[in-house]
Specification:
about 120 residues; mainly alpha; 6 helices; about 55% helix; globular
Length: about 120
């Protein structure tokens, strides 16, 4: 199912677009002493944020605009993951780097965790 920005979705329908978050209250990806599951836990968290914010009527248009402005949308696969999730993840990923560097590196990270 393709995500339609103009449609209102139920919480369950939104969760259906997520790869890591399945509606749990707590992450099923505990971070180990050596950092195991750190990325999966982070992806679970931001997918849960995406669902929660959409259920509150918030949009991710700012993140999507930024994601598109840096051309990241042209580097990403059309894989059924909503652009809002990708844009939110890119925004978080870019916090530790320049936007130009993040735009290059984020698609590689994404491909590893969203095959």
């Amino acid at each position: 199912m393709q995500f339609d920005e103009t449609k209102e979705y139920t919480r369950e329908e939104l969760i259906g677009f997520c790869r890591y978050y399945k509606g749990e209250e707590n992450s099923p990806f505990p971070v180990g002493e050596n950092g195991e599951n750190q990325n999966e836990n982070m992806l679970w968290f931001y997918e849960s944020v995406w669902v929660s914010e959409l259920m509150q009527g918030l949009t991710h248009s700012y993140h999507i605009d930024e994601y598109r402005a840096y051309g990241v949308d042209r580097l990403m696969p059309d894989d059924g993951v909503p652009e809002g999730i990708k844009a939110l993840l890119f925004d978080r990923w870019a916090r530790g780097a320049s936007m130009a560097d993040a735009a290059i590196e984020f698609p590689k990270f994404y491909a590893e965790y969203y095959p």
